[in-house]
Request: fold
Amino acid sequence: MEYDYFVQPNYKPKRDDLVCTFYFEPARGISVKEAVGRIASESSVGTWAKELKTETPTVTRRLKRIGAKAYYVRGAKVRIAYPSELFEPGNMPQLLSSFAGNIFGMRAINNLRLESIDFPEKIARSFKGPKFGIRGIRKLFGVQDRPLTCTVPKPKLGLTWEEHAKVGYEAWVGGIDLLKDDENLTSQSFNNFEKRVVECAKMREIAEKETGEKKSYLINITGETNEMLRRARLVKNLGWEYVMVDIVTAGWAALQTVKEECDKLGLIIHAHRAMHAAFDRNPKHGISMYVIAQLARLVGVDQLHTGTAGLGKLESGEGETQKLNQFLKSRFFGMKPVLPVCSGGVHPGLVPELMKKLGKDIVIQAGGGIHGIGTRIGSTALRQSIDASLKGISLKDYAKTHPELDTALKTFGFVHPR
Ligand code: CAP
Ligand code: MG
Reply:
């Protein structure tokens, strides 16, 4: 079929169509019309050869029905409608291999970025969505009116399981709700998964007794899929509530499998997004973090990293975190809202600004910003900076009567780390 066929300015997307919005730049010598036609063709039913011996009149009729249609082009934006017959419900890799597959490497296109997706109900509801969401998580902790707090032991690798658990204990007692594994800590010779999880369980019991507060732990089960399932079961058997998955490196199919198991076990899923910037940092090419957030919510994670609204150490473009968080909390096919996690270079001095930009329904996660001043002191300082922000008292004033916060401000001030 000619590329022309895939460009239909008068097409009105049908109820069951899935619509993708792309930024695109045609290669030299390729017209806008040909560029968008090629994108729609390659991502749905077409190939480069214009005539196919397999294309009987019956097949052509079918291709015309199910082929993607580029129906809206304004400047460098194109919207393409994909009839839902192109997709296998509930199969995330298949969806991505269609509208986020070969097209990024086409020589006819210089740059191509998938910005956002409008899902039809039929496809969206073929995924499970979060089991717990913000309400379920808040209920677990009995905390309704403040951000949840989290810390990841640093150095990110190098602590033994006993050292790790001890850091956890100090953090919990200092006022932190959630201990977290780092993205590249799974089960190494110096810090075995099982030993760490067992040791942390002992420490949590003591910390909960001492503080009277609920404490939990984002346990990184990332690995080969069957191993992740084994680890999830172990986590459950030891009485924990959460697993953490590096969703991009583990992959969507694996995440779907883990999600099924977690639903059976009743475990909350914390999604770390390590590697996302490999394809979402370039504003002209790749896949946006917004799309990753859409997919993650569909599959059904309960918490997702969304950056620091430009205040922390990692790139998060102007307004990007706000947009992501807004999406995670918005209405979406009856699926529960996902709790955004604000992390990367966070320390107590940044909290008022973070809360002003992102509100209360977030997890505030700090690694270096806590352990850089001592785990217990840093943890207390983080809670104090949240309390001060909620009371509308400046950190400088609050620090006069709160020595931990004072230490934090003396160490890090209000710096935006890089
Ligand atoms: C933060 C962190 C997180 C990143 C993830 C790290 O540590 O543990 O993995 O924040 O990025 O390894 O860098 P610090 P994002 O608190 O010491 O910076 O949240 O943007 O996905
Ligand atoms: Mg990390």
In short: The pocket of 2-carboxyarabinitol-1,5-diphosphate (ligand 1) is lined by residues 152, 154, 156, 182-183, 273, 305, 307, 313-314, 343-346, 366-369 (CB under 6 Å). The radius of gyration is 24 Å. The mean pLDDT is 97. Residues 173 and 212 are 10 Å apart (CA to CA).
